[in-house]
Design goal:
The chain is mainly beta. The protein has a domain of about 220 residues: Cupredoxins -  blue copper proteins (Immunoglobulin-like), CATH 2.60.40.420. About 10% of the residues lie in helices and about 30% in strands. Strands 1, 11, 12, 14, 16, 17, 18 and 20 form an 8-stranded mixed β-sheet that branches. Strands 2, 3, 4, 6 and 8 form a 5-stranded mixed β-sheet that branches. A 5-stranded mixed β-sheet has the order 13-24-21-15-19, with no helix packed on it. The chain binds copper (II) ion (CU).
């Protein structure tokens, strides 16, 4: 199947056996996903209707109705996840992938969630932001005992409010979350006319520290991660957010890393309409173009997609839009690196000085990198290398996109007269900045030792 067919057939695949299933002890089937492509929204087959979400490079967990109860089956287990095409990580996750599948249900539903533990150690699931009985809260040792390896526990509660929530372990969580265990939990409003949108995207911000050429995250890392991911995926292999011109769009973002992420979207202003605490009343919203997502929090924002184009969406911390970078590098900005570069290249032909030709060099020259890693920055656009990695994607707003179509429409063609261009005429007179010239001239006598 090509990509478009796969996206269209995504929801159907889950019921046809293309994904492995297990059935035992009357538990609901545990659907398993074996790839990292974005699955089309999973329309509810039973129970109240709602407009399902789309999890970028992810999927929604199917459920079954058992009487009046919506039953899900989560399996905590070691998984192999392609963080990018050609880079596999050995993570822990749920039902075949990290991040875990998105759970979707409706305000007023009673849910029963079976959690089977196939990890080598105990785990629990905490339902972040949901209002539920204390004993269902998933804090190991506090709410209930940890789920031992090989055992299945049942969580059961009523969904008393709609909104944007998440789930993750509250057991050995430094290890288990560093290994990729987390997912989104979306509760749709009972009233389908409340805050309706045409497209509803889910992004979980997470991070890993995986040395180039290796497969397993370092779980002791506190802040110096080298892979900043959305739903355990990095640019250039994070799928675009495909949007039809005129659509009302919601983007829900959760943060389970150990630092904040200012998520910036180009081309639009928008309003935060929901947090993990609930919906924001219209009179309490204010306009933004970047939203800081605090650690352990969720924000959803909405906009009307009235501006066609390819619009960048990214974390505004520039080190978070890079892959697998080292930080222990001397600073040579302003120095004339030509002679030095020549000398170093005699020994290491791939050496690339920073601040000389931009990171695009790396993409252009396709520097040799170890097996099983991704370049710091790559990604090709219609006009050359994009010089990005990590937490970056593109919102593609186009006319004529069908309601259920999330396949990549390709690059936007800027209409004539709407693209920046090279000036070849006469320039107005500029006063030169002598101080700046002095600073940029190398002065060996004052060069700092690094
Ligand atoms: Cu960030």
């Amino acid at each position: 199947m090509n990509r478009r067919q796969l996206l269209t057939a995504g929801a159907g695949l889950m019921a046809t056996g293309a994904m492995a299933k297990t059935q035992n002890m009357g538990l609901p089937e545990a659907a398993v996903m074996d790839g990292a492509s974005t699955q089309a929204p999973l329309r509810p087959q039973s129970g109240p209707d709602y407009n399902p979400v789309v999890t970028l490079n992810g999927w929604t967990l199917p459920y079954r109705m058992n009487g009046n109860v919506k039953e899900f089956h989560l399996v905590a287990e070691p998984v192999e996840r392609e963080l990018a095409d050609g880079m596999t990580a050995y993570l822990w996750g749920y039902n075949g992938q990290s991040t875990g599948p998105t759970i979707e249900a409706v305000e007023g539903d009673r849910v029963r969630i079976f959690v089977t533990n196939k990890l080598p150690e105990h785990t629990t699931v905490h339902w972040h932001g949901l209002i539920l009985p204390s004993g269902m809260d998933g804090v190991g040792g506090l709410s209930h005992p940890g789920i031992p390896p090989g055992k299945t526990f049942v969580y059961e509660f009523d969904l008393v409010k709609s909104g944007t929530f998440m789930y993750h372990p509250h057991a050995d969580e430094m290890v288990q979350m560093a290994m990729g265990m987390m997912g989104m939990f979306i509760v749709h409003p009972k009233d389908p006319t409340f805050m309706p949108v045409d497209r509803d995207f889910c992004i979980m911000l997470n991070a890993f520290d995986i040395d180039p050429g290796t497969y397993i995250p370092r779980v002791m890392t506190m802040t110096e991660f080298n892979l900043w991911t959305w739903n355990s995926r990095v640019f250039p292999d994070i799928d675009p957010l495909v949007v039809g011109l005129g659509d009302r769009v919601r983007v829900r973002v959760g943060n389970l890393t150990m630092t904040n992420h200012p998520i910036h979207m180009h081309g639009y202003d928008f309003e935060v309409t929901c947090t993990d605490g609930g919906w924001v009343p219209p009179e309490a919203r204010w306009p933004e173009v970047s939203i800081d997502i605090p650690v352990g929090a969720m924000r959803a924002y909405e906009f009307d997609a009235v501006h066609p184009g390819d619009w960048a969406i990214h974390c505004h911390k520039s080190h978070h839009t890079m892959n697998a970078m080292g930080h222990d590098v001397p600073n040579f900005i302003g120095a004339d690196k030509r002679a030095l570069t020549g000398m170093i290249r005699k020994h290491q032909p791939e050496y690339m000085p920073m601040g000389t030709a931009g990171m695009a060099d790396m993409a252009v020259m396709s520097m040799e990198i170890p097996d099983n890693t991704v370049p710091m920055m790559t990604g090709w656009g219609p006009h050359g290398p994009i010089e990005m990695g990590g937490m970056f994607s593109v919102v593609k707003v186009r006319e004529g996109i069908e309601a259920n179509d999330y396949s990549d429409p390709g690059w936007y063609e800027n209409p004539p007269g709407t693209e920046a261009y090279e000036w070849t005429g006469e320039l107005p007179e500029f006063t030169s900045n002598e101080k700046a010239q002095t600073i940029l001239t190398p002065r060996p006598d004052t060069a700092r030792k690094s």
